[in-house]
Amino acid sequence: MLKKKISQKICTYLIISIVMAGCKESPDSGLVTIPIPNSVHAPVLLSEMSQEEARIQLETKNGVFLGHIFEVKLHRNRLLISDIKRISIFDMEGNFIQFLGKQGEGPGEYKSVTSMDIDEATGNIYVSAWNKLMVYDSNYQLIEERKLDYHLNYLKILDGELWTVSEEIGIKIGDNFANQTNIYKLDDAYQISDTIPFRTIILDHVHIGGAGFRFWLSDIEEGLYMFMPVLTPENMIRDTLYQVMENNIVVPAVKFQFERKQSLDESGYQTLLLINIFNSTSYYILEYEQDWERFKFLYDKKNKKGYNLQGGLIDEDGDPVFLRPLVLKEDLFYYIKKFEFEDKTIEEKNPIIGIVKLN
Known about the structure:
By secondary structure, the protein is mainly beta. Helix content is 4%, strand content 50%.
């Protein structure tokens, strides 16, 4: 039955043979360029690309139903799952343990979550809620709360230090407006110790755009890399992965050359949206939308092969899934498998979290 379902899906692609994308070096800049074809490849099974580490059915109980899952972290045999409004903690059997912190707008509370990360050495959990920074210890107790005078759009712990990404929207510049992004490194008192200007986008009026998942900083043995998408209307593709150097400058590292050119539809929206670039030890992984359809591009660094896939890799049920980073240095990823909601007389189940290690 499974083989039949997968075969049917493969036939819908008209069986385009898998033409692998190679990489080349630009003769002008020395920048490595990886081409992404406009055509999609035949579907690829998740089992062919990875080893399954765990498949966890999250418990569904009264008051514990996850909305849109924004982020998943794995730490000390616990899954911390943010659905934007709150963070839920589950064990590796999928049993609900507790919520992290309290919801609300008062002291010691947060109303929404923009990002979270965990210090592997101390077990401390860092949560950003727009301009509020919350720090919890390994027992999930609040130990620090700071209100900052800038937005915390994203945060990451690197070698025990807290790094944040902040985007300021709609800065007036003459007759135009700017969206300005900075990378900040914070000291032990959560004050800015270093600032790395990343990008300024000039617009004719105030625009803001966002995605349902963000992963802007990739930390691997080779260094720290950053990609942050531009989702406001512009007739170009922001297609370059940058490296953050030790002298606090940001330099282009890899360019992903789409065969398809950018264009704007009749409403002024981009028809090609590059949303995320993850840089793991063995793979580059891109998430993008083309004409409102979701695609994933995987590039095997060792074998210099690329796979351009519509909807993601195919799981054991014959369904496409998207891989999201857990531990990039170990090529460890997760995916979210939701249930089709068919019977309105029963409670909808929480999803499955699958954990895989790419080959």
